Amino acid sequence: EEQARLIRDQPDQPQNPKVLRIAIIGAPNAGKSTLSNQLLGRKVFPVSKKVHTTRCKARGVVTYEDTQLIILDTPGLTSPFKAKRHKLDKAMLTDPWDSMKHADLVLVLVDVSDHWTRNSLSKEVLKCLSQFPQIPSVLVLNKVDLLKNKFILLELVTELTEGIVNGKKLEVRSAFKHNSSSSAKSPLQITQAFPLENRDPESHCVQETDQAQEGSSLDNTSDMRASESSLVTEEAEGPKCSGPRDLKNTKGWPCFQEIFMLAARHGEEVDTLKRYLLMQAKPGPWEFHSGVLTSQSPQEICDNIIREKVLEYLPLEVPYGVVQVTEMWEEGPSGELLIVQNLLVPRKSHMMMLIGRGGKVISRIAQEAGQDLMNVFLCDVRLKLKVDMKS
């Protein structure tokens, strides 16, 4: 009731409100919901290793002083073929596009730990960017902590931006002294393209330094010792970013304004990105009351967290056929939240997998989901899960 009242209420506007609507897009499982949760400071979006954990667009709200960031967490951009394969709702295909229509800024998330996909933006992402070239876009390289050889990041930046950032040409200059006998680890400091306010107007340099700079400090674990490695931006006649482009042989997007490198799961460098987003906000009325954290109802948050655990513990395609029915949702005598949910599955074999030997799987799901719900709702939660066959 309180959540419904806060969403219904007029926002408590400050004197000079500022707002920024941010669409986070990327391939499935790039870490969009993890990044959203880190920006919000609390876990309100479901996260799992399986693709398509996020099934619909949901909004998160960050209110800081006179500024409101509205984060549009969207399903991973996917093709109609894959949507059919995972029994996904049609909204999974349209929601990311709808989010783009309402966005002031788009964050394109790339999982740099996936060596199969990291060298190019997916066709769906490129199509989305090409369709909305007027919306400022920022490249976010996620999961950099999982890269052993950080020099790969220099190559990825060049490929994913087509060598152009903020209308300026990037040059990668590197001279390596190969030292195969040495096992010494040479630190590599890469400073991302930061907001213009923070840059020296005389220099547009992303380069290696002896001391850690503000930005990602990344260890290089290869047996190469870098004597010089830098990304230099030069004035360039940048490509026109005003209309759809031919995407047939396109790998990157030359219209990114900034680049950030982070590890969303551990919160590394998320604050740097958050500060940048707050600075990009423009004067405008707030959409939500400052007490709102998400546009989702408590029941939707609960459903999402339980589904996240089901996805985590069931193999392959099985969890995508589970239907959730909430049978009880009430407050107990001591203020605790009592929830009973029935999980309906299409086959007896799925039922056995979900229950597990001696009820171990379903018990673990209930325990972990209950703990997450306590962290979200900030109260005691008693969660009971039942498993039945679909009638």
Summarize the structure.
The chain has ten helices and 16 strands. With 391 residues, it is of the alpha/beta class.
Please tell me the total number of domains.
Answer: 2
Give me the count of strands. 16
Mean pLDDT figure? 78
| Helical segment count | 10
Question: What's the gyration radius in Å?
Answer: 23 Å
Overall morphology: globular
- CATH topology call of the largest domain: Rossmann fold
Tell me the fraction of residues in β-strands, as a range.
25-35%
Low-confidence stretches: 78-96, 175-229
CATH architecture of the largest domain: 3-Layer(aba) Sandwich
Q: What's the N-to-C terminus distance?
A: 32 Å
Q: Which structural class do the helices and strands define?
A: alpha/beta
Estimate percent helicity.
25-40%
CATH class of the largest domain: Alpha Beta
SSE arrangement, N to C: HEHEEHHEHEHEEEEEEEHEHEEHHE
CATH homologous superfamily placement of the largest domain: P-loop containing nucleotide triphosphate hydrolases
Main beta-sheet annotation: 7 strands, mixed
